[in-house]
Amino acid sequence: MNNANAQKLHLPAKRKNRIIRESMLDRVFLIFVYGLLTILGLIFAVPLLNVIACSFSSSVAISSYQVYIWPVGFNLRGYQEMFKIYELWMGYGNSLFYTVAGTAINLAVTILCAYPLSNTKLDGRKGIMAIYTFTMFFSGGLIPSYLVVRTLGMLNTRWAMIIPGAMSVYNMIIMRTFFMSSVPGELKEAAEIDGANDLQQLVRVVLPLSMPVIAVLGLYYAVGHWNSYFSGLIYLNDYTKYPLQLILREYLLSDRKLDEILSGGSAVYRADGLAEMMGLREILKYSIIIIATLPMIILYPFIQRYFVQGVMVGSLKG
Fold first, then answer.
1. In degrees rounded to 5, what are phi and psi of residue 108?
2. Residues 163, 263: one domain?
3. CB 179 within 8 A of CB 114
4. Does position 119 have pLDDT exceeding 70, yes or no?
5. What 3-state DSSP class applies to 49?
6. Which of 21, 28, 37, 224 has the fewest CB within 10 Å, making it most exposed?
């Protein structure tokens, strides 16, 4: 249909594409944003690159402060010695268990709490939300929490690392907001007409549409479990149940343990001087730090494609 016919039928003619030009102020602001992000990226990247470079450098280069962001005197001595530390891998396995099991429980509890509260027809919904919000600002404190864990029989068990923090109220509010703003109510109504109950609507309709927020909150929970050490310090007495972060704390703060590992190896370690021993100790520390952070670094690329969608919960609709 041409423009003449469109005018006769009182239909709007197709408008020409308009080119929106950026003003000088917009360009200056864009340059400022990119510059700021570049500076922040360097601030975060340089220390990480320095740790990686030190873990692959020689002990002499580290002792003489020659390493910056590129390995000097490439060697794998730190990683070779690290594999001899049984306690480290025991803590690694414990942290993997706490992270996987804890994140699964966190997501299950968060979803089962957020989904009912996203229903505007739920009686007492505002009162329940007020109770949850109250706990974000006021808590019982460390001693009451310890007494609760002891009374429940979870003291010195693996559940003490998972159950007390089974849900974050802040994350629950994020997920509730996503359910309310991004999941069309028409889909749930159609499923209800087809005979689906509330649980079936959640599993078959809501959750498949909520993968971005689930992935992002799962990453938040996983990082929290992986980096957690305070709960183990308070609730655990059994060394075999310690998470990786507690094991790292002992090795990174106590040079004696590292010296025992290094001197218990080949005769070369006993014959070397103090400077060589100190350099090997530093290499081992850097190698342990890299191995401890590696799982979260590997996990992030798989979550990254959901990250932008998840962090903008409620900002866009349609």
1. -65, -50
2. yes
3. yes
4. yes
5. helix
6. 21
